[in-house]
Task: structure prediction
Amino acid sequence: MQREFRGLGASSGIALGPALVWRPVQPASAAVRAAGSPEEETARLQAARQAAEEELAELRDRAEREMGGEEAAIFSAHLLMLSDPALMGEAEELVRQGLSAEAAVEQATERQAALLAALPDAYLAERAADVRDVGGRLLAHLQDRRRPEPRLEQPAVVVARDLTPSQTARLPKDLLLGIVTEAGGPTSHVAIMARALGIPVVVGVPGIVDATNSGDVVALDGDTGEVAVRPADEELARWRRRQELLEADRRRLAGLASRPAVTADGHPVSLLANISTPADVARALEMGAQGVGLFRTEFLYMDRDDAPGEDEQYLAYREVIERCAPHPVTIRTLDVGGDKQLPYLGLKREMNPFLGWRALRYCLDAPDVFRTQLRALLRAAAGGPGEAARVGIMFPFVVSLEEIRRAKAQVELARRELEARGAPHAGPVKIGIMVETPAAALMAERLAREVDFFSIGSNDLTQYTLAADRHNEHVAQIFDELHPAVLRLIEATIRAADRAGIEVSLCGELAGDARAAPLLLGLGLRKFSAAAPSLPRLKEKISATTLEEARGLARRALQAASAEEVRALLSGHDGE
Ligand code: PEP
Ligand code: MG
Result:
Protein backbone atom coordinates (compact mmCIF):
# COMPACT_ATOMS: atom_id res chain seq x y z
CA MET A 1 0.00 0.00 0.00
CA GLN A 2 1.14 3.51 -0.82
CA ARG A 3 2.43 5.64 2.05
CA GLU A 4 3.06 9.36 2.02
CA PHE A 5 5.38 11.35 4.22
CA ARG A 6 6.54 14.90 4.56
CA GLY A 7 9.96 15.88 5.79
CA LEU A 8 12.26 18.80 5.06
CA GLY A 9 13.50 19.36 1.54
CA ALA A 10 17.28 19.47 1.86
CA SER A 11 18.63 19.17 -1.67
CA SER A 12 16.63 20.20 -4.68
CA GLY A 13 15.28 17.83 -7.31
CA ILE A 14 13.01 14.83 -7.70
CA ALA A 15 14.23 11.25 -7.35
CA LEU A 16 12.32 8.13 -8.27
CA GLY A 17 13.60 4.61 -7.93
CA PRO A 18 13.98 1.47 -5.85
CA ALA A 19 14.84 1.96 -2.20
CA LEU A 20 17.91 0.66 -0.48
CA VAL A 21 16.92 0.66 3.18
CA TRP A 22 19.93 0.79 5.39
CA ARG A 23 19.61 -0.61 8.89
CA PRO A 24 23.00 -0.66 10.57
CA VAL A 25 23.84 -3.69 12.68
CA GLN A 26 22.53 -3.22 16.19
CA PRO A 27 25.01 -4.29 18.86
CA ALA A 28 22.19 -6.14 20.64
CA SER A 29 21.89 -8.53 17.72
CA ALA A 30 25.35 -9.79 18.57
CA ALA A 31 24.05 -12.12 21.21
CA VAL A 32 21.77 -14.04 18.89
CA ARG A 33 24.53 -15.26 16.59
CA ALA A 34 24.87 -19.01 16.93
CA ALA A 35 28.12 -20.02 18.55
CA GLY A 36 30.71 -22.16 16.79
CA SER A 37 32.72 -24.67 18.77
CA PRO A 38 34.42 -23.25 21.89
CA GLU A 39 37.78 -23.55 20.07
CA GLU A 40 36.49 -21.55 17.09
CA GLU A 41 34.94 -18.90 19.31
CA THR A 42 38.12 -18.64 21.40
CA ALA A 43 40.15 -18.11 18.24
CA ARG A 44 37.72 -15.39 17.07
CA LEU A 45 37.88 -13.73 20.46
CA GLN A 46 41.69 -13.74 20.38
CA ALA A 47 41.77 -12.33 16.85
CA ALA A 48 39.38 -9.53 17.82
CA ARG A 49 41.45 -8.79 20.89
CA GLN A 50 44.62 -8.58 18.83
CA ALA A 51 42.98 -6.26 16.29
CA ALA A 52 41.65 -4.06 19.11
CA GLU A 53 45.11 -3.99 20.72
CA GLU A 54 46.75 -2.88 17.50
CA GLU A 55 44.13 -0.21 16.96
CA LEU A 56 44.47 1.10 20.51
CA ALA A 57 48.26 1.14 20.34
CA GLU A 58 48.03 3.20 17.18
CA LEU A 59 45.55 5.59 18.76
CA ARG A 60 47.73 5.90 21.86
CA ASP A 61 50.84 6.73 19.80
CA ARG A 62 48.99 9.28 17.72
CA ALA A 63 47.46 10.88 20.82
CA GLU A 64 50.92 11.05 22.39
CA ARG A 65 52.33 12.80 19.31
CA GLU A 66 49.48 15.17 18.71
CA MET A 67 47.87 15.82 22.04
CA GLY A 68 50.13 14.78 24.84
CA GLY A 69 50.27 12.32 27.68
CA GLU A 70 46.88 12.80 29.26
CA GLU A 71 44.90 11.80 26.19
CA ALA A 72 47.32 8.98 25.41
CA ALA A 73 46.78 7.64 28.93
CA ILE A 74 43.14 6.90 28.15
CA PHE A 75 44.14 4.55 25.36
CA SER A 76 46.84 3.00 27.54
CA ALA A 77 44.16 2.30 30.14
CA HIS A 78 41.96 0.68 27.49
CA LEU A 79 44.88 -1.45 26.41
CA LEU A 80 45.34 -2.61 29.98
CA MET A 81 41.68 -3.59 30.17
CA LEU A 82 42.21 -5.89 27.21
CA SER A 83 44.71 -7.87 29.23
CA ASP A 84 42.77 -7.62 32.48
CA PRO A 85 41.40 -11.02 33.56
CA ALA A 86 38.30 -9.28 34.91
CA LEU A 87 37.06 -8.54 31.42
CA MET A 88 38.85 -10.88 29.04
CA GLY A 89 39.15 -13.74 31.53
CA GLU A 90 35.43 -13.69 32.05
CA ALA A 91 34.71 -13.51 28.31
CA GLU A 92 37.02 -16.49 27.72
CA GLU A 93 35.29 -18.43 30.44
CA LEU A 94 31.86 -17.72 28.92
CA VAL A 95 33.11 -18.88 25.53
CA ARG A 96 34.33 -22.11 27.10
CA GLN A 97 30.82 -22.55 28.47
CA GLY A 98 29.46 -22.46 24.90
CA LEU A 99 28.58 -18.83 24.22
CA SER A 100 29.47 -17.09 20.97
CA ALA A 101 32.39 -14.67 21.23
CA GLU A 102 29.99 -11.74 20.71
CA ALA A 103 27.60 -12.84 23.45
CA ALA A 104 30.52 -13.51 25.79
CA VAL A 105 31.99 -10.05 25.22
CA GLU A 106 28.60 -8.42 25.72
CA GLN A 107 27.90 -10.23 28.96
CA ALA A 108 31.39 -9.81 30.40
CA THR A 109 31.40 -6.12 29.49
CA GLU A 110 28.03 -5.46 31.04
CA ARG A 111 28.89 -7.33 34.21
CA GLN A 112 32.18 -5.46 34.67
CA ALA A 113 30.60 -2.13 33.83
CA ALA A 114 27.76 -2.70 36.29
CA LEU A 115 30.23 -3.64 39.05
CA LEU A 116 32.23 -0.46 38.48
CA ALA A 117 29.17 1.77 38.14
CA ALA A 118 27.96 0.61 41.57
CA LEU A 119 31.18 1.71 43.32
CA PRO A 120 30.91 4.71 45.66
CA ASP A 121 34.11 6.25 44.28
CA ALA A 122 32.95 8.55 41.44
CA TYR A 123 36.20 8.17 39.52
CA LEU A 124 36.01 4.38 39.49
CA ALA A 125 32.31 4.49 38.69
CA GLU A 126 33.08 6.51 35.60
CA ARG A 127 35.39 3.76 34.38
CA ALA A 128 32.23 1.83 33.52
CA ALA A 129 32.06 3.91 30.34
CA ASP A 130 35.65 2.88 29.51
CA VAL A 131 34.84 -0.80 29.93
CA ARG A 132 31.85 -0.38 27.61
CA ASP A 133 34.05 1.44 25.13
CA VAL A 134 36.56 -1.42 25.12
CA GLY A 135 33.75 -3.98 24.85
CA GLY A 136 32.26 -2.05 21.93
CA ARG A 137 35.61 -2.04 20.17
CA LEU A 138 35.94 -5.80 20.56
CA LEU A 139 32.42 -6.30 19.25
CA ALA A 140 33.10 -4.06 16.28
CA HIS A 141 36.05 -6.26 15.35
CA LEU A 142 34.06 -9.44 15.88
CA GLN A 143 31.33 -8.19 13.60
CA ASP A 144 33.68 -6.39 11.25
CA ARG A 145 31.66 -3.24 11.86
CA ARG A 146 34.58 -0.88 11.60
CA ARG A 147 33.10 0.73 8.55
CA PRO A 148 29.39 0.28 8.69
CA GLU A 149 27.92 1.69 5.53
CA PRO A 150 25.13 1.08 3.07
CA ARG A 151 26.25 -0.90 0.02
CA LEU A 152 24.87 0.34 -3.26
CA GLU A 153 25.16 -2.04 -6.18
CA GLN A 154 22.49 -0.63 -8.48
CA PRO A 155 20.80 2.77 -8.85
CA ALA A 156 18.75 3.38 -5.71
CA VAL A 157 17.30 5.86 -3.25
CA VAL A 158 19.06 5.36 0.08
CA VAL A 159 16.64 5.35 3.02
CA ALA A 160 18.30 5.49 6.44
CA ARG A 161 17.84 6.62 9.98
CA ASP A 162 20.86 8.89 9.56
CA LEU A 163 24.06 9.08 7.52
CA THR A 164 27.35 10.49 8.72
CA PRO A 165 29.42 12.64 6.37
CA SER A 166 31.90 9.80 5.85
CA GLN A 167 29.16 7.29 5.05
CA THR A 168 27.75 9.77 2.53
CA ALA A 169 31.19 10.39 1.07
CA ARG A 170 31.59 6.66 0.38
CA LEU A 171 28.30 6.20 -1.50
CA PRO A 172 28.94 5.69 -5.22
CA LYS A 173 27.59 8.89 -6.73
CA ASP A 174 26.73 7.35 -10.09
CA LEU A 175 24.31 4.94 -8.40
CA LEU A 176 22.84 7.29 -5.82
CA LEU A 177 19.45 8.57 -7.01
CA GLY A 178 18.39 10.29 -3.81
CA ILE A 179 18.48 10.14 -0.01
CA VAL A 180 15.76 10.12 2.65
CA THR A 181 16.71 10.16 6.33
CA GLU A 182 14.76 10.21 9.55
CA ALA A 183 17.26 12.47 11.27
CA GLY A 184 18.97 15.65 10.25
CA GLY A 185 18.18 19.14 9.07
CA PRO A 186 18.71 20.92 5.75
CA THR A 187 22.18 22.09 6.71
CA SER A 188 23.42 18.71 7.88
CA HIS A 189 26.49 17.62 5.99
CA VAL A 190 24.72 14.80 4.18
CA ALA A 191 22.47 17.47 2.64
CA ILE A 192 25.36 19.78 1.84
CA MET A 193 27.30 17.04 0.07
CA ALA A 194 24.30 15.88 -1.91
CA ARG A 195 23.45 19.43 -2.94
CA ALA A 196 26.88 19.88 -4.48
CA LEU A 197 26.24 16.76 -6.54
CA GLY A 198 22.68 17.70 -7.46
CA ILE A 199 21.28 14.64 -5.64
CA PRO A 200 17.79 15.18 -4.17
CA VAL A 201 17.50 14.77 -0.40
CA VAL A 202 14.67 14.89 2.13
CA VAL A 203 15.60 14.78 5.82
CA GLY A 204 13.56 14.65 9.03
CA VAL A 205 11.11 11.92 7.97
CA PRO A 206 10.27 9.91 11.09
CA GLY A 207 9.10 6.36 10.47
CA ILE A 208 10.41 6.10 6.91
CA VAL A 209 12.84 3.26 7.67
CA ASP A 210 10.17 0.99 9.15
CA ALA A 211 7.69 1.84 6.40
CA THR A 212 10.01 0.96 3.53
CA ASN A 213 11.55 -2.26 2.30
CA SER A 214 14.56 -2.44 0.06
CA GLY A 215 13.30 -2.63 -3.51
CA ASP A 216 10.10 -0.60 -2.89
CA VAL A 217 9.68 2.30 -5.28
CA VAL A 218 10.29 5.59 -3.50
CA ALA A 219 9.67 9.08 -4.87
CA LEU A 220 10.97 12.22 -3.18
CA ASP A 221 10.92 15.93 -3.81
CA GLY A 222 13.95 17.68 -2.34
CA ASP A 223 12.22 21.08 -2.59
CA THR A 224 8.88 20.39 -0.93
CA GLY A 225 10.00 17.55 1.36
CA GLU A 226 7.32 15.15 0.01
CA VAL A 227 8.13 11.44 0.01
CA ALA A 228 5.95 8.63 -1.39
CA VAL A 229 6.64 4.96 -0.74
CA ARG A 230 5.19 2.45 -3.23
CA PRO A 231 3.18 5.13 -5.11
CA ALA A 232 0.15 3.84 -7.04
CA ASP A 233 0.33 3.94 -10.85
CA GLU A 234 -1.35 7.33 -11.43
CA GLU A 235 0.65 8.79 -8.59
CA LEU A 236 3.85 7.46 -10.10
CA ALA A 237 2.92 9.04 -13.45
CA ARG A 238 2.39 12.37 -11.68
CA TRP A 239 5.84 12.12 -10.08
CA ARG A 240 7.37 11.35 -13.49
CA ARG A 241 5.75 14.45 -15.03
CA ARG A 242 7.02 16.62 -12.20
CA GLN A 243 10.50 15.19 -12.69
CA GLU A 244 10.38 15.99 -16.44
CA LEU A 245 9.22 19.57 -15.83
CA LEU A 246 12.00 20.10 -13.33
CA GLU A 247 14.52 18.68 -15.76
CA ALA A 248 13.32 21.07 -18.49
CA ASP A 249 13.68 23.98 -16.07
CA ARG A 250 17.15 22.85 -15.15
CA ARG A 251 18.15 22.79 -18.83
CA ARG A 252 16.75 26.31 -19.32
CA LEU A 253 18.69 27.59 -16.30
CA ALA A 254 21.89 25.89 -17.43
CA GLY A 255 21.70 28.21 -20.45
CA LEU A 256 22.35 31.11 -18.06
CA ALA A 257 25.69 29.70 -16.90
CA SER A 258 27.87 31.78 -19.20
CA ARG A 259 26.05 35.07 -18.53
CA PRO A 260 27.57 37.45 -15.96
CA ALA A 261 25.76 37.90 -12.65
CA VAL A 262 24.45 41.46 -12.40
CA THR A 263 21.49 43.02 -10.66
CA ALA A 264 18.63 44.46 -12.74
CA ASP A 265 20.22 47.91 -12.28
CA GLY A 266 23.63 46.77 -13.43
CA HIS A 267 25.61 46.05 -10.23
CA PRO A 268 27.96 43.09 -10.59
CA VAL A 269 27.75 40.21 -8.13
CA SER A 270 30.24 37.33 -7.69
CA LEU A 271 28.86 33.82 -7.71
CA LEU A 272 31.29 31.24 -6.37
CA ALA A 273 30.94 27.53 -5.64
CA ASN A 274 31.30 25.44 -2.50
CA ILE A 275 33.24 22.26 -3.18
CA SER A 276 34.37 19.22 -1.20
CA THR A 277 36.76 17.52 -3.64
CA PRO A 278 38.88 18.54 -6.65
CA ALA A 279 36.43 16.62 -8.83
CA ASP A 280 33.68 19.13 -7.94
CA VAL A 281 35.47 21.95 -9.78
CA ALA A 282 34.37 20.87 -13.25
CA ARG A 283 30.70 20.94 -12.31
CA ALA A 284 31.13 24.28 -10.57
CA LEU A 285 32.62 25.90 -13.67
CA GLU A 286 29.94 24.31 -15.84
CA MET A 287 27.31 26.00 -13.68
CA GLY A 288 29.00 29.37 -14.17
CA ALA A 289 30.93 29.65 -10.89
CA GLN A 290 33.50 32.46 -10.92
CA GLY A 291 35.76 30.55 -8.58
CA VAL A 292 35.57 28.56 -5.37
CA GLY A 293 34.39 30.43 -2.28
CA LEU A 294 34.66 27.43 0.05
CA PHE A 295 36.69 24.26 -0.33
CA ARG A 296 35.73 22.04 2.62
CA THR A 297 39.05 20.21 2.90
CA GLU A 298 37.93 17.82 5.64
CA PHE A 299 36.48 15.56 2.97
CA LEU A 300 40.04 14.71 1.93
CA TYR A 301 40.45 13.27 5.42
CA MET A 302 37.40 11.03 5.31
CA ASP A 303 36.96 7.47 4.14
CA ARG A 304 40.42 6.42 5.25
CA ASP A 305 42.35 5.19 8.27
CA ASP A 306 44.97 7.92 8.56
CA ALA A 307 45.43 11.57 7.70
CA PRO A 308 46.50 12.49 4.16
CA GLY A 309 50.18 13.47 4.05
CA GLU A 310 51.58 16.80 2.92
CA ASP A 311 52.28 15.69 -0.66
CA GLU A 312 48.87 14.15 -1.12
CA GLN A 313 47.22 17.31 0.12
CA TYR A 314 49.47 19.50 -1.98
CA LEU A 315 48.37 17.63 -5.10
CA ALA A 316 44.68 18.01 -4.23
CA TYR A 317 44.94 21.76 -3.52
CA ARG A 318 47.12 22.32 -6.57
CA GLU A 319 44.59 20.53 -8.73
CA VAL A 320 41.76 22.77 -7.51
CA ILE A 321 43.83 25.94 -7.97
CA GLU A 322 44.88 24.95 -11.48
CA ARG A 323 41.45 23.81 -12.59
CA CYS A 324 39.94 27.07 -11.36
CA ALA A 325 42.49 29.37 -13.03
CA PRO A 326 42.18 32.32 -13.44
CA HIS A 327 39.48 32.42 -10.78
CA PRO A 328 39.97 32.77 -7.01
CA VAL A 329 39.96 29.81 -4.63
CA THR A 330 39.33 29.92 -0.89
CA ILE A 331 40.52 26.85 0.94
CA ARG A 332 39.24 26.22 4.44
CA THR A 333 41.50 24.46 6.91
CA LEU A 334 40.35 21.23 8.53
CA ASP A 335 36.87 21.51 10.08
CA VAL A 336 36.48 18.26 12.02
CA GLY A 337 34.66 17.44 15.20
CA GLY A 338 30.94 18.08 15.48
CA ASP A 339 29.34 15.50 13.18
CA LYS A 340 32.64 14.85 11.41
CA GLN A 341 34.32 12.36 13.68
CA LEU A 342 37.55 10.90 12.37
CA PRO A 343 38.69 8.28 14.87
CA TYR A 344 42.27 8.28 13.63
CA LEU A 345 42.65 11.94 14.64
CA GLY A 346 42.03 10.96 18.24
CA LEU A 347 38.77 12.89 18.49
CA LYS A 348 36.83 11.73 21.48
CA ARG A 349 33.12 11.23 21.95
CA GLU A 350 31.83 14.40 23.55
CA MET A 351 28.66 15.35 25.36
CA ASN A 352 28.14 18.40 23.12
CA PRO A 353 30.33 17.87 20.06
CA PHE A 354 29.21 21.07 18.35
CA LEU A 355 30.27 23.05 21.40
CA GLY A 356 33.41 21.06 21.81
CA TRP A 357 36.72 20.19 20.29
CA ARG A 358 36.01 21.26 16.73
CA ALA A 359 37.70 22.79 13.72
CA LEU A 360 40.31 25.46 14.56
CA ARG A 361 40.23 24.48 18.25
CA TYR A 362 41.29 20.97 17.34
CA CYS A 363 43.91 22.19 14.84
CA LEU A 364 45.53 24.54 17.35
CA ASP A 365 45.81 21.60 19.76
CA ALA A 366 47.15 19.27 17.05
CA PRO A 367 49.84 21.47 15.49
CA ASP A 368 51.40 18.59 13.51
CA VAL A 369 48.15 17.87 11.72
CA PHE A 370 47.52 21.60 11.24
CA ARG A 371 50.96 22.49 9.91
CA THR A 372 51.02 19.54 7.52
CA GLN A 373 47.95 21.07 5.93
CA LEU A 374 49.34 24.60 6.03
CA ARG A 375 52.59 23.54 4.36
CA ALA A 376 50.63 21.78 1.63
CA LEU A 377 48.53 24.92 1.16
CA LEU A 378 51.52 27.27 0.98
CA ARG A 379 53.20 25.01 -1.54
CA ALA A 380 50.05 24.72 -3.62
CA ALA A 381 49.58 28.49 -3.72
CA ALA A 382 53.01 28.93 -5.31
CA GLY A 383 52.23 28.58 -8.98
CA GLY A 384 52.99 31.13 -11.66
CA PRO A 385 53.37 34.88 -11.06
CA GLY A 386 50.50 36.39 -9.10
CA GLU A 387 49.00 33.01 -8.36
CA ALA A 388 49.11 33.41 -4.59
CA ALA A 389 46.88 36.49 -4.98
CA ARG A 390 43.95 34.33 -5.99
CA VAL A 391 44.34 31.82 -3.14
CA GLY A 392 42.89 32.40 0.30
CA ILE A 393 43.40 30.30 3.42
CA MET A 394 40.40 30.37 5.72
CA PHE A 395 40.07 29.31 9.36
CA PRO A 396 36.74 27.90 10.53
CA PHE A 397 34.89 28.28 13.82
CA VAL A 398 36.67 31.31 15.22
CA VAL A 399 35.49 32.86 18.47
CA SER A 400 38.43 35.06 19.45
CA LEU A 401 41.23 37.27 18.27
CA GLU A 402 43.65 35.07 20.13
CA GLU A 403 42.76 32.08 17.96
CA ILE A 404 43.39 34.07 14.78
CA ARG A 405 46.79 35.16 16.03
CA ARG A 406 47.74 31.65 17.03
CA ALA A 407 46.58 30.29 13.68
CA LYS A 408 48.55 32.94 11.81
CA ALA A 409 51.61 32.05 13.89
CA GLN A 410 51.21 28.45 12.71
CA VAL A 411 51.13 29.68 9.09
CA GLU A 412 54.41 31.49 9.73
CA LEU A 413 55.93 28.40 11.32
CA ALA A 414 54.82 26.29 8.35
CA ARG A 415 56.43 28.83 6.03
CA ARG A 416 59.69 28.64 7.96
CA GLU A 417 59.64 24.86 7.85
CA LEU A 418 59.31 25.02 4.07
CA GLU A 419 62.11 27.58 3.86
CA ALA A 420 64.37 25.35 5.92
CA ARG A 421 63.65 22.52 3.51
CA GLY A 422 64.20 24.74 0.50
CA ALA A 423 60.72 23.84 -0.77
CA PRO A 424 59.06 26.33 -3.15
CA HIS A 425 56.10 28.03 -1.54
CA ALA A 426 53.94 31.12 -1.86
CA GLY A 427 54.84 34.51 -0.43
CA PRO A 428 52.04 36.24 1.45
CA VAL A 429 48.65 34.63 0.87
CA LYS A 430 45.30 36.03 1.87
CA ILE A 431 44.18 34.89 5.29
CA GLY A 432 40.54 34.94 6.24
CA ILE A 433 38.08 33.55 8.73
CA MET A 434 34.64 32.04 8.71
CA VAL A 435 32.28 34.24 10.69
CA GLU A 436 30.02 31.50 11.97
CA THR A 437 29.71 32.11 15.68
CA PRO A 438 27.83 34.96 17.33
CA ALA A 439 31.10 35.88 19.06
CA ALA A 440 32.88 36.43 15.74
CA ALA A 441 29.95 38.36 14.26
CA LEU A 442 29.70 40.62 17.30
CA MET A 443 33.47 41.18 17.27
CA ALA A 444 33.60 41.56 13.48
CA GLU A 445 34.90 45.14 13.57
CA ARG A 446 37.81 44.17 15.73
CA LEU A 447 38.54 40.89 13.93
CA ALA A 448 38.47 42.62 10.52
CA ARG A 449 41.76 44.32 11.40
CA GLU A 450 43.47 40.94 11.65
CA VAL A 451 42.42 39.29 8.39
CA ASP A 452 42.05 39.87 4.65
CA PHE A 453 38.53 38.53 4.29
CA PHE A 454 35.44 37.17 6.00
CA SER A 455 33.16 34.42 4.87
CA ILE A 456 29.88 34.17 6.74
CA GLY A 457 28.95 30.61 7.65
CA SER A 458 25.21 30.99 8.03
CA ASN A 459 24.73 27.30 8.89
CA ASP A 460 26.71 27.42 12.09
CA LEU A 461 25.83 31.05 12.76
CA THR A 462 22.16 30.04 12.82
CA GLN A 463 22.84 26.97 14.94
CA TYR A 464 24.73 28.92 17.57
CA THR A 465 22.56 32.05 17.53
CA LEU A 466 19.29 30.16 17.91
CA ALA A 467 20.80 27.39 20.07
CA ALA A 468 19.29 24.80 17.71
CA ASP A 469 21.40 21.82 16.59
CA ARG A 470 21.53 21.89 12.80
CA HIS A 471 21.32 18.08 12.67
CA ASN A 472 18.48 17.52 15.07
CA GLU A 473 15.15 17.02 13.33
CA HIS A 474 13.26 17.84 16.54
CA VAL A 475 14.47 21.44 16.49
CA ALA A 476 14.51 21.83 12.71
CA GLN A 477 11.57 24.24 12.95
CA ILE A 478 13.58 26.48 15.27
CA PHE A 479 16.70 26.39 13.10
CA ASP A 480 15.89 29.17 10.64
CA GLU A 481 18.46 31.29 8.83
CA LEU A 482 15.85 33.97 8.25
CA HIS A 483 15.41 34.65 11.97
CA PRO A 484 15.97 38.42 12.37
CA ALA A 485 18.64 37.73 15.02
CA VAL A 486 20.69 35.86 12.41
CA LEU A 487 20.06 38.54 9.80
CA ARG A 488 21.23 41.24 12.20
CA LEU A 489 24.50 39.40 12.79
CA ILE A 490 24.97 38.94 9.04
CA GLU A 491 24.35 42.63 8.48
CA ALA A 492 26.79 43.62 11.25
CA THR A 493 29.46 41.39 9.74
CA ILE A 494 29.04 42.81 6.24
CA ARG A 495 29.08 46.37 7.60
CA ALA A 496 32.25 45.70 9.61
CA ALA A 497 33.99 44.21 6.59
CA ASP A 498 32.98 47.15 4.39
CA ARG A 499 34.24 49.64 6.95
CA ALA A 500 37.56 47.85 7.25
CA GLY A 501 37.82 47.55 3.47
CA ILE A 502 38.09 43.77 3.47
CA GLU A 503 36.17 41.29 1.32
CA VAL A 504 33.14 39.47 2.63
CA SER A 505 31.16 36.57 1.20
CA LEU A 506 28.51 34.23 2.51
CA CYS A 507 29.08 30.51 2.06
CA GLY A 508 26.40 28.87 4.22
CA GLU A 509 23.40 27.17 2.61
CA LEU A 510 21.45 30.44 2.78
CA ALA A 511 23.62 31.74 -0.07
CA GLY A 512 22.16 29.10 -2.41
CA ASP A 513 18.54 29.89 -1.58
CA ALA A 514 17.40 32.06 -4.51
CA ARG A 515 14.42 33.38 -2.57
CA ALA A 516 16.75 34.96 -0.02
CA ALA A 517 19.08 36.52 -2.62
CA PRO A 518 17.32 39.95 -2.77
CA LEU A 519 17.48 40.15 1.02
CA LEU A 520 21.20 39.32 1.10
CA LEU A 521 21.88 41.86 -1.65
CA GLY A 522 20.00 44.42 0.42
CA LEU A 523 22.14 43.58 3.46
CA GLY A 524 25.13 44.54 1.33
CA LEU A 525 26.33 41.13 0.18
CA ARG A 526 27.99 41.04 -3.25
CA LYS A 527 29.67 37.63 -3.05
CA PHE A 528 27.68 34.42 -2.78
CA SER A 529 29.26 30.99 -2.47
CA ALA A 530 26.88 28.07 -2.86
CA ALA A 531 26.43 24.54 -4.16
CA ALA A 532 27.08 24.62 -7.89
CA PRO A 533 23.61 23.43 -9.00
CA SER A 534 21.96 26.38 -7.23
CA LEU A 535 24.03 29.04 -9.05
CA PRO A 536 21.93 29.43 -12.24
CA ARG A 537 18.69 30.01 -10.33
CA LEU A 538 20.50 32.43 -8.05
CA LYS A 539 21.74 34.34 -11.05
CA GLU A 540 18.25 34.53 -12.50
CA LYS A 541 16.91 35.93 -9.25
CA ILE A 542 19.72 38.48 -8.89
CA SER A 543 19.23 39.73 -12.43
CA ALA A 544 15.56 40.39 -11.63
CA THR A 545 16.32 42.48 -8.53
CA THR A 546 17.36 46.13 -8.22
CA LEU A 547 19.53 47.23 -5.32
CA GLU A 548 16.95 49.80 -4.31
CA GLU A 549 14.21 47.22 -3.79
CA ALA A 550 16.71 44.89 -2.16
CA ARG A 551 17.68 47.56 0.37
CA GLY A 552 14.05 48.28 1.18
CA LEU A 553 13.44 44.60 1.75
CA ALA A 554 16.50 44.27 4.00
CA ARG A 555 15.46 47.28 6.08
CA ARG A 556 12.06 45.74 6.74
CA ALA A 557 13.50 42.28 7.40
CA LEU A 558 15.89 43.62 10.04
CA GLN A 559 12.94 45.16 11.85
CA ALA A 560 10.77 42.04 11.57
CA ALA A 561 9.72 40.21 14.70
CA SER A 562 10.16 36.67 13.40
CA ALA A 563 11.44 34.46 10.62
CA GLU A 564 7.84 33.99 9.47
CA GLU A 565 7.52 37.74 8.97
CA VAL A 566 10.73 37.77 6.96
CA ARG A 567 9.46 34.89 4.86
CA ALA A 568 6.25 36.77 4.20
CA LEU A 569 8.28 39.80 3.06
CA LEU A 570 10.24 37.59 0.66
CA SER A 571 7.06 36.03 -0.73
CA GLY A 572 5.63 39.52 -1.24
CA HIS A 573 8.77 40.45 -3.11
CA ASP A 574 8.40 37.35 -5.26
CA GLY A 575 4.88 38.46 -6.09
CA GLU A 576 3.63 35.10 -4.83
C1 PEP B 1 28.61 27.16 7.74
O1 PEP B 1 28.67 26.83 8.92
O2 PEP B 1 27.74 27.94 7.27
C2 PEP B 1 29.59 26.63 6.77
C3 PEP B 1 29.64 27.07 5.54
O3 PEP B 1 30.42 25.62 7.22
P1 PEP B 1 29.96 24.08 7.38
O4 PEP B 1 28.58 23.97 6.79
O5 PEP B 1 30.96 23.27 6.65
O6 PEP B 1 29.98 23.91 8.85
MG1 MG C 1 30.48 25.85 9.61
Notes: The mean pLDDT is 90. Residues 38-66 form the longest helix (29 residues). DSSP finds 22 helices and 16 strands in the chain.
